[in-house]
Each structure stands twice: as C-alpha cells, then as structure tokens.
C-alpha cells in the first residue's frame, strides 16, 4: 500500500515539493519501477476516478494517459533531472488551458489565477463531490463476457472508472481489493467451459469484498458529511431505533467506537484497516446486544463479520415502546461543559420513542439544538433566551416528529404501491381544491423522498438537500404549488 500513498503524491503533482522536487521524483519513480507500468496505471485510474467522481470516462482517460506518460518518461534511467518538474508544470498549464481535456471543476479558474507551486497545490486540492447514489450497476454475466472478449483492456479501464467513481468514498485499499477480485473473476469465468457455475462460485467468494465496499462507502460518506461527533450521534440514534429497549449507556460507547473506526480508516492507506477494525467493532456490537435482542442475535450468528455488520445495518426500525415523555435538558445542562452529551441523550430518547424518524430529520434537530446553544448560552440573558426556545420547541416539535415518523413508518410497513395510494388519499383530504396534476406531483415527490431517505443507510447530503427550514406561516401561499409542498419537507426553526 506504500505505492498507493506515493501515487497520491504524483496525482497531487507537488504535495511534497517543500521537501524538494528531487524527493517527489525519486519516490514516484521508485514506486513506478516497483509496481510496473500497468499496475501503476490501474492505481492512477482508481485514484483519479475517486477524486473526480463526476468526470467522464474520456476526461479520466486523458488525465491518466498524461500522468502515466510523465512517470514513464521522467523515470527512465537517462531522463533529465528537471523532467518531472517540467512535466508537472506542463500538466498544470494544460489544466488551465481553454478546452482542457481533463476533468472540469468550478474551482479550476480560481486556481489558474495563481502561478507556480501555489497553482499546482490549488489544482491538486480540487475534488468533485461524491456520488451519494452510486450509478454503477453490474451487467449480466453474458454482458460482462461479451464486453471483456471484445476488448479486455477497455473493459477493465471502464469498469475501474465506473466502480471507483460510484464508490468514491470507500477507502482506496478497499477499492483496490474489490476491483482486483472482480477483474480476476471476469477473466477467469469468461474463458471457463462452465461460466455460470464459475461466476456463482466466484461471486460467493468475493461477497465480503462487495459488502465491505458498499458499507465503507456509505459509512465514509456519512463521516465526511457529518464529522466524527455528529457521526457518533447518527450511529447512536440508528441503534436506538433498532433496539429502543437499550439504554443510552448501552449504546453510546458502541457509537463512539464506530465513529473512531471510520475516523481512522476512511482515509487510511493501510491495506486491512477498514476490514480489521470494522470486524472488531461488529464483534463488540454482537457481544453487547445479541443476547438482548432476537434480531441482533440472528444477524450475529454468521461467522463472516462483514455479513453480520451488513445485516445489522439493514435492520428496519423496531416498534416504538410505550415510554414516558423524553426529558428535555435543563438550561444549566445545555450551557455546561457536558452539553453535547446532554443533547445527544435527549435526541437519543426522541429516537427511542419515534423509531421511524429518518436520520436526515434527527440530524437537522441535532444542528438546531447546537444553534440554540450557540445563540443562547452566550447571550446576556441566557435563561430567558433558552426558555423562549423551549416554549417554541414544545409547540412545534411534536407535530413535526409525528409527521416525519408517520411518513417513514407507512413507507416501511406498506408496499410501495399501497404507500403511494395512502399518500394520495391523505393529500386529497388535506388539499381538496388541488388539481389532479398537482396531487400526482406531490405524491411522486414524497414517495421519491421516502424511498431514498427513510432507509437507515440514506445518503446524508442528498437527503439534507431535500429538507429545508420551515418558512414563517404567513409566507406560505396556498395558491402556488411550490410553497404548498415546501412546509412538508422542512424542519422547525427553534
């Protein structure tokens, strides 16, 4: 995996130039010679497809060709010592040229206003936002073999590009392992006299790689979107909704442990970091919870810890138990040094009582409580400020929680067609004057939101973009279609 780390130095063009240009060139050339041109090229495709996840295949292909050519030319025994520096400068210049064939980025123009090292470092730091809804769909066995036999090299390149750009938040070592085993499977089974049996056997053997890629991409997407502290909260409320009978003290340490795993492994180039530490975490969850919940016990029966983790993460919410009202933190607690823990405990208790509320709404509530603390705890009259916010929360929070909880509970319990039918009936009752076209538009909007964001593994940034703060009541104009839809997909402003 040292090679992967050094490759990133090359892709960044000059991330280590402060240690000397010769140092960068020597490290790159050492790994180019160790890996060989084809393995070096494979790493370059994967790393750039991750970094520029919304680029076209042709754009990635152009960039990979230039990077590999630079290494091949400047790492030759008779290459001029200034070759690498001159070549990386030429790459930067080409990125800034009109009609550049490299991946487009809104920040490119700003970087190109700089010169020299500053320009290179700026360009190297550019990165596309991840694809939160991966677009890669594995073709049938027949389609795979047809494309492979037609042009094995083009097939491999396109697969590496599509897979790495779709799962761009998965750690680099995870992507390397998963793509390597996939291409090995295709090259083996497409020349096998019994391809169907071959594919079945190979897919079973690489199932752990597939699950690790899927789960680490989801987890690292959430880690990158939330940060460690908010991820701890998100994991905590997810566990609370799957096992609402467990206490805060039972689940909080497991949530902290999960956040620590992702903080250590999402950016790690250690080959087994994610698999090793996520397996250790899964063992802790199973040891702590399987004896207390039948569903967790069923997930923990298997010997493959990656499959156990996938099973746990996919568990639907449990039925909410009958519990007394959640206790709100006092003003003193909200402004204390331990305020973050008190906030997490309160929202944990809300999740226990509303097990179908999706992560996106709980996340928005978490942000809202943090904003209240920042606004009130440093105010001249903190107590009055907090009392005002508490009164508003007491009025607006219950209907908000009920609405969000009901939507996702119905989505979970009903078939998709019945769910849409229920939505249509509800909207017809609440909006009797709405046209059939508007009703259908709102049904599709809400069904689309539910199908993506009611899942325990929903994409955080995508779902957050669909939920806005609620506008003041006097701004909602019932006569216009867009404002009619807006209050439903919103969170209260406390």
Task: Write a compact overview of the structure shown.
This protein is mainly alpha-helical and 494 residues long. It is built from 24 helices and 2 strands.
What does this structure look like?
- With 494 residues, the chain is mostly helical.
- It has 24 helices and 2 strands.
- The protein has a two-stranded parallel sheet.
- α1 crosses α2 and α19 (359-376) runs antiparallel to α20 (382-413).
- Mean pLDDT is 87; it is low at 1-20 and 474-487.
Order of secondary-structure elements: HHHHHHHHHHHHHHHHHHHHHHHEHE
Bulk shape = globular
Structural class of the helices, strands and pairings? mainly alpha
The main β sheet shows up as: 2 strands, parallel
Helix content: 55-70%
Low-confidence spans: 1-20, 474-487
What's the structural blueprint in terms of helices and strands?
Elements: H1 2-11, H2 21-35, H3 37-51, H4 57-74, H5 83-96, H6 108-112, H7 116-125, H8 141-150, H9 152-166, H10 172-189, H11 195-205, H12 207-242, H13 248-265, H14 273-289, H15 294-299, H16 305-313, H17 331-334, H18 339-353, H19 359-376, H20 382-413, H21 416-430, H22 436-453, H23 460-466, E1 468-469, H24 481-485, E2 490-491
Parallel strand pairs: 1-2
Helix pairs in contact: 1-2, 1-3, 2-3, 3-4, 3-9, 4-5, 5-7, 8-9, 9-10, 10-11, 10-12, 12-13, 12-18, 12-19, 13-14, 14-16, 18-19, 19-20, 21-22
What labels would you give this structure?
494 residues, mainly alpha, two-stranded parallel ribbon, disordered N terminus
């Amino acid at each position: 995996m040292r090679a992967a780390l050094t490759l990133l130095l090359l892709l960044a063009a000059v991330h280590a130039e402060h240690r000397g240009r010769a140092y960068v060139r020597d490290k790159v050339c050492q790994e180019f010679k160790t890996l060989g041109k084809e393995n070096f090229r494979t790493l370059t495709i994967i790393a750039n497809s991750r970094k520029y996840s919304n680029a076209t295949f042709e754009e990635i292909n152009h960039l990979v060709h230039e990077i590999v050519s630079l290494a091949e030319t400047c790492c030759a025994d008779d290459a001029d010592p200034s070759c690498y520096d001159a070549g990386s400068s030429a790459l930067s210049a080409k990125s800034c040229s009109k009609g550049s064939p490299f991946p487009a980025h809104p920040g490119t123009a700003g970087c190109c206003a700089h010169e020299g090292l500053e320009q290179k470092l700026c360009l190297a730091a550019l990165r596309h936002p991840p694809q939160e809804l991966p677009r890669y769909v594995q073709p049938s066995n027949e389609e795979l073999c047809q494309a492979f036999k037609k042009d094995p090299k083009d097939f491999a390149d396109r697969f590496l590009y599509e897979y790495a750009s779709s799962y761009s938040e998965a750690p680099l070592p995870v992507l390397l392992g998963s793509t390597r085993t996939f291409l090995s499977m295709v090259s083996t089974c497409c020349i096998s006299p019994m391809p169907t049996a071959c594919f079945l056997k190979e897919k079973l053997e690489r199932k752990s790689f597939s699950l690790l890629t899927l789960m680490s991409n989801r987890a690292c997407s959430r880690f990158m979107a939330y940060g460690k502290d908010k991820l701890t909260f998100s994991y905590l409320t997810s566990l609370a909704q799957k096992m609402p009978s467990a206490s805060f003290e039972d689940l909080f340490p497991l949530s902290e442990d999960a956040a620590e795993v992702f903080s250590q492994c999402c950016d790690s180039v250690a080959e087994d970091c994610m698999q090793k530490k996520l397996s250790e975490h899964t063992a802790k969850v199973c040891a702590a919870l399987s004896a207390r919940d039948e569903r967790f016990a069923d997930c923990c029966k298997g010997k493959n810890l990656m499959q156990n983790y996938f099973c746990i993460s996919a568990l639907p919410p449990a039925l909410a138990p009958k519990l007394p009202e959640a206790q709100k933190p006092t003003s003193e607690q909200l402004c204390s040094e331990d305020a973050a823990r008190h906030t997490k405990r309160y929202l944990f208790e809300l999740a226990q009582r509303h097990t179908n509320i999706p992560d996106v709404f709980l996340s928005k509530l978490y942000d809202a409580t943090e904003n209240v603390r920042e606004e009130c705890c440093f105010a001249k009259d903190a107590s009055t400020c907090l009392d005002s916010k508490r009164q508003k929360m007491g009025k607006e929070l219950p209907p908000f929680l009920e609405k969000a909880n009901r939507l996702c509970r119905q989505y979970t319990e009903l078939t998709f067609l019945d769910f849409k039918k229920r939505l249509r009936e509800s909207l017809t009752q609440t909006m009797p004057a709405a046209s059939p076209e508007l009703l259908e538009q709102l049904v599709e909007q809400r069904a689309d939101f539910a199908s993506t964001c009611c899942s325990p593994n929903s994409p955080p940034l995508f779902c957050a973009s669909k939920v806005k703060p609620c506008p003041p009541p006097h701004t909602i104009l019932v006569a216009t279609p867009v404002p009619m839809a807006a209050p439903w997909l919103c969170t209260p402003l406390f």
